[in-house]
Amino acid sequence: MFLEFLKAVAMFISLSMCIFLFAYVYIEGLRISISEKREKVEAGTFLTSLLMAFVFGYFASSFY
Fold first, then answer.
1. How many domains does the structure of the chain reveal?
2. Where are the alpha helices (DSSP H) in the chain?
3. How far is CA 17 from the centre of its chain?
4. Nearest alpha carbon to residue 62 among 18, 1, 2
5. Would the N or C end of the chain have less CB density within 10 A of its end CB?
């Protein structure tokens, strides 16, 4: 019973992080696309957040 509860909590946290990171990546992508061409844009946070969103999405689907 306790393990089922932990599994449900882990799925909720993974799903929440997945949704948050995809929303963050979307907003960051909009910021990058709107920025001026002469302004230097770092895409490291964009790529890292996108990768981690897919990882947490995989975790959420494996806990389901």
1. 1
2. 2-34, 44-63
3. 6
4. 18
5. N
